[in-house]
Write a structure and sequence with these properties.
Chitinase A, domain 3, 305 residues, alpha+beta, 2 domains, 25% helix, 6-stranded antiparallel β-sheet, 5 helices
Length: 305
């Protein structure tokens, strides 16, 4: 065998072993540093005698409740704040808190967050939420190996223990029935007398407008504001940039198109769109609108062409 090839092979093996050892050393140091920080946090908070679950997370009840705990197959609706052991807040469902901690995001809708529990991003929070009772509040302390591990997420450094303070508002085993109850309550509370169309859309005309309703081959220029049933705005057109849509498009939710087809130029209306004529059982592709969500659109028709 060529002597040069032997030397080269030995060098590659040596280089690989050194790299592997350095990686292991970094991981060991990171994990040990995390363990020390977590222990200090537990002592500071008076949790020294608290036993972790079999996986290693800690669960502290902050507010008792007699409600049920969720299964992984359930939807949950929560309020939360996520922070590191040094107290730095990295995420929250509360807008005012996000402002205070300098983490406000323009692409996020603040307020209660609803999602299918089994789809949640990392195992520690999934497990932790199954320990919280509906109507209760808990603190879930999650070691990095049950969260983001050695990955650097910027605001969340590698080997970071995560602490979530969670309020479990709803455990939703049947999202269709749950959403219908919310819609029925909204209709009653707002004294809406309009009857739904055959599809379930509520069309509430505020200004009639003039001219003909749009045909399938026409385009419509309009302003809109999209809201949840609780009044939170999730999207709206800019005052100087109305939306232009083709009436025969398939890229816009069917309830929206159905409502626009009932309007005339200069008209204004509110559309209350049930989940199955809106964003369906998957929610919006950008994750802003949860699955099975009723949505409201306030619309003004600028022109029909």
């Amino acid at each position: 065998m060529n002597k040069t090839k032997i030397v080269s092979s030995l060098f590659l093996v040596f280089f690989f072993m050194i790299t592997l050892l350095n990686g292991c050393s970094y991981e060991d140091e990171g994990a040990e540093e995390e363990r020390i920080k977590l222990q200090k946090y537990l002592e500071k908070m008076g949790y020294s005698n608290l036993e972790p679950t079999n996986s290693g997370l800690y669960h502290i009840v902050l507010e008792e409740s007699d409600g049920e705990t969720p299964e992984l197959s359930d939807y949950v609706n929560i309020k939360f704040t996520g922070k590191l052991v040094d107290g730095k807040v990295f995420d929250t469902s509360d807008r005012d808190s996000a402002v205070v901690h300098g983490i406000l995001r323009d692409d996020k809708i603040y307020g209660p967050t609803r999602f299918l529990l089994v789809t949640l991003g990392f195992p520690g929070l999934r497990e932790g939420l199954t320990l919280v009772k509906e109507g209760g509040k808990s603190r879930i302390i999650i070691p990095s190996y049950l969260a983001y591990g050695a990955t650097d997420y910027g605001i969340i450094p590698p080997y970071s223990t995560l602490i979530y303070d969670v309020e479990l508002l709803d455990v939703i085993s049947d999202p269709v029935s749950h959403e219908q109850e919310l819609l029925d309550a909204f209709i009653e509370q707002n004294q809406i007398t309009a009857e739904p169309t055959g599809s379930g859309l509520y069309f509430i005309e505020e200004v009639q407008g003039t001219g003909d309703i749009p045909a399938d081959n026409q385009s419509v220029t309009l302003h809109y504001k999209g809201l949840f049933l609780d009044g939170r705005v999730f999207d709206e057109s800019e005052s100087d940039k109305p939306l232009v849509i083709q009436m025969n498009t398939s890229s816009i939710i069917p309830g929206f198109i159905e409502g626009v087809k009932m309007m005339r130029q200069g008209g204004k209306a509110r559309l209350i769109i049930p989940w199955d004529k809106g964003y369906g059982s998957s929610g919006s592709s950008n994750g802003v609108i949860p699955p099975y969500s009723t949505v409201i659109f306030d619309i003004e028709i600028v022109s029909i062409q």
